[in-house]
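ABC transporter substrate-binding protein
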Amino acid sequence: MKRLVKNNVKSALIALTAAVALAGCGTGQSAEKTNSNESKEEKTYELKIGYGQGSGAALFDVADHEGFFEDENLKVEGVGFASSADGLNALEAGKIDLGMTFGTAAPLTFISGGSNFSIIGGHLEGGHPILVKEENKEQYKSLEDYKGKKVGTIRMFTSDIVFRSALADAGIDWKKDLEIIEFKTGGDLLQAVASGKVDVAVSAGSTYLKAKEQNLAVIGWSNDLNPTHVCCRVVTRQELLSEDNGEAYKRFLKALIRAERVRNEHPETAVEAAKTHLKLDDETVDSIVNEEHSHYSPDPNSKEVKKMWEQMQEIGYIENAEEIDINKYINLDLYERALNELIKEYPEDQDYYQELLERFTKQNL
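Predicted structure tokens:
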């Protein structure tokens, strides 16, 4: 994957006139800012951002494309990984500063194993397809139809937890009534279902393009099993948040918050942003980044995170969870501060950001 790197640091003069230039960007966001945040131009922060190499990260791409990171004096570098486990191992080892598309289940699994991570925001909710060979798609009408089947999942991936929890809620014993086979990457999983090694692939949104290329049929989505489930969370190491009271990470969230609006109001911009690394035609890229089952939001949505934590305990996916206070691994302060700053900096858009603040209250407090 092409690395997305912003190499130029704006001078103080450019920074002070950026609001005027942004007025014609067509993103539907007001460019008028107060002067309360001029001091942030004094320092540039550098962050390495990890994401799945299959499709990048939509909000990251839009924020990068629209210059929102530069507005916050952030110099960002995107680093692709083949799996959530690889990305989170890199985060723990200090090779990256943030993970964006490594799911919810994977960070929670790492936390249950002793990793000192902090979930500070969100990225994706829903959007993971369940796949079979085209000739087998009529076999699956309900969860009962999975009994006796070989079902492939991606190791430590959110859709796996959503699927197992849905089976348990339906009274189906996923340890006895079917065989679940875990794969390290989405590519391995697609190969398994295409070759007949598994009957069903509980897959990931990042595999959707390759699944279409292999003529695999979508028989359902993770949203169908749990309409409110979260997936990719923005995660970092707790010790990194102590520097400048997490200033760099708050700024990163501000850029993502602005990117959410652009992505929702101007989906064509999301296509252009993703094309920097997805070398495909517009229609194909659009089918990936604007897929209707994929909902993008940087809100932490901690209530759903904690719900998944409980589900992982209930189905026996993690151990020793009762000894861990998961609230200590979720940081809500940074996102709330980011929203409040945007309300002050963009007074003409404060109604929009106030709505996001209300959503934040509903989903987190």
